[in-house]
Structure formats: structure tokens, C-alpha cells
Specification:
Strand content: 35-45%
Shape: globular
Distance between the termini: 10 Å
Oligomer: single chain
Radius of gyration: 18 Å
CATH superfamily of the largest domain: Diaminopimelate Epimerase, Chain A, domain 1
CATH class of the largest domain: Alpha Beta
Number of helices: 6
CATH architecture of the largest domain: Roll
CATH topology of the largest domain: Diaminopimelate Epimerase, Chain A, domain 1
Number of domains: 2
Largest sheet: 18 strands, mixed
Helix content: 10-25%
Structural class: alpha+beta
Length: 265
């Protein structure tokens, strides 16, 4: 039985930008080893697996080497897949049951808004290998439930950063977020995300990182609605709206490939 498999660029309005995710549609549960093998074959930052549930869809995310607890861009891509494939009416809310609880997505024209849990970072001691790995000393370091966050005063430092992934892989966290104030009109903050420990040296646009970025910048800038730009080579824009313990993440998505996975488990 073939499995529908799409590749979708998330947090972008044009193809070959933003963050590519694979979305695989399943009619029934599949063996975890098979799911991981598919993700390794796709070799993208994330492969999402969708399966119908009584009230929405089961959703799981895999990097090429491991399953993760939360992923923004592959959730955005999954919602886009449901609406574009006709599996869900465009005016219906997408409801995803995941390892991070219930996540929802709504559509407004070309924009998709995700409702995610906020994961604020608390100030922490500087982990060993962090400064050496990033090549620049941050002005503040925090730790969220998933990641280490390093804050800089100058966006140029973040944009030019050429990290040592070997060093950063030793930092005990899913990944390292680097961020600084925005340096362009309409951009409140810039960021990048490095995750060599989960086989994602640099993630092009990381929705889940903005669940930590939004609380930090909301407190610093005194506003809850902001626009972030992830300054990777591909680049991508994430609009955030902090609402108490939740963060609304908004972005666009573009389908670049529609196909079928023919490999049987």
C-alpha cells in the first residue's frame, strides 16, 4: 500500500525557502523503527507522520535520528497538507494529538496560525562548550524545557556566526537558540537554531524555538505581538502572539513535491 508523502516548505511564501518538512499520511499505526527509517531516508530536519484520530489527527515528528517532543514547522506543514489535499475543509480547525498535548491550527487566507505551549527560558549558568562552540560570548544565557538560549546585543553577530557543531553537540540540550534585536524594518528580533545533537546542524526556521523566544522578547520589548526572522541561509518569518502560557505562531507554507512512498514495512 503506498503512503502519500509530500514535501512542504514552511514559514515562507515561496518555494526553496523557509524550512522543508516531509509529511507522510498513514491510515493505521506503523512500527516506530519504520517511521524512523522513513525520516532517515527523507533526511530533512523533520518528517511528520499524520494518522486520523477520533477528534483530529495523531501527529509525530522525527529527525533523521530521533523522535522529538515538539516541532513547529512540520506541524505547519501538516496543517497545510490536510487543507491542500482536501482531507480537511479549509474553514475547519486542524487538531493534532501529539507528545506535547493538543495542538491546533487555523487558516486565514495564505496564513496558518498554530496554537503552541509557551516554553520560557530561565537564566542559567553558561554550559561548557557553549561560548567556544558559538565563537562569541552572549550577554545572557537561559534554558527552556528543550533548548539553551544565547542572547546577543547585535544582530550582525547572529547573522555572521559560524559555529563549531562538534563543540555544540556536547551541550546537553535539544538545541541552541541564538538571538538578538531586529535589524530591519518590521523585524522585532532575529534568531538562528543549531541542533547538532539531534542531527540537525542548523535548522532553517524553527517554530518551536519561538515558543521560548516569544516570552523573552515580550518581556524585553514590552509587547506581546512580534515578528521574528530566522536568519539561516534559507531564512523565514515567524509572527508570534504571546497569550499567557500559549504562543500563537503564524506563517505560510508552499508545497514543492507530491508523491507516494512505496516501501513496505
Amino acid at each position: 500500500m503506498p503512503f502519500p508523502l509530500w514535501q512542504i516548505d514552511a514559514f515562507t511564501s515561496r518555494p526553496f525557502a523557509g524550512n522543508p518538512a516531509a509529511v507522510c499520511w498513514l491510515e493505521q499505526p506503523m512500527d516506530e523503527a519504520w517511521l524512523q527509517a522513513v525520516a532517515a531516508e527523507m533526511n530533512l530536519a523533520e518528517t511528520a507522520f499524520l494518522q486520523p484520530a477520533a477528534d483530529g489527527y495523531h501527529l509525530r515528528w522525527f529527525t533523521p535520528s530521533t523522535e522529538v517532543d515538539l516541532c513547529g514547522h512540520a506541524t505547519l506543514a501538516s496543517a497545510h497538507f490536510l487543507w491542500e489535499s482536501g482531507r480537511l475543509a479549509s474553514d475547519r480547525e486542524a487538531r493534532f494529538h501529539s507528545r506535547s498535548g493538543l495542538l491546533t491550527a487555523t487558516r486565514n487566507g495564505d496564513w496558518i496560525t498554530l496554537d503552541f505551549p509557551a516554553t520560557p527560558a530561565s537564566e542559567t549558568i553558561v554550559p561548557h562548550d557553549l561560548v567556544e562552540g558559538l565563537g562569541a560570548a552572549p550577554v545572557w544565557v537561559g534554558r527552556s524545557v528543550f533548548d539553551v538560549m544565547a542572547v546577543y546585543d547585535d544582530a550582525a553577530i547572529v547573522r555572521r556566526m559560524a559555529p563549531s557543531f562538534e563543540r555544540l553537540s556536547r551541550v546537553p540540550a535539544r538545541g541552541i537558540i541564538v538571538t538578538a534585536p531586529g535589524d530591519a524594518p518590521g523585524i522585532d528580533f532575529v534568531s538562528r537554531f543549531f541542533g547538532p545533537g539531534v542531527d540537525v546542524p542548523e535548522d532553517p526556521v524553527t517554530g518551536s524555538a519561538h515558543c521560548a523566544l516569544a516570552p523573552y522578547w515580550a518581556a524585553r520589548l514590552g509587547q506581546t505581538r512580534m515578528t521574528g526572522y530566522q536568519a539561516s541561509h534559507r531564512g523565514g518569518t515567524v509572527m508570534v502572539d504571546l497569550r499567557g502560557g500559549r504562543v500563537l505562531l503564524s506563517g505560510q507554507a508552499v508545497t514543492v513535491l507530491r508523491g507516494e512512498l512505496s516501501s513496505e514495512p
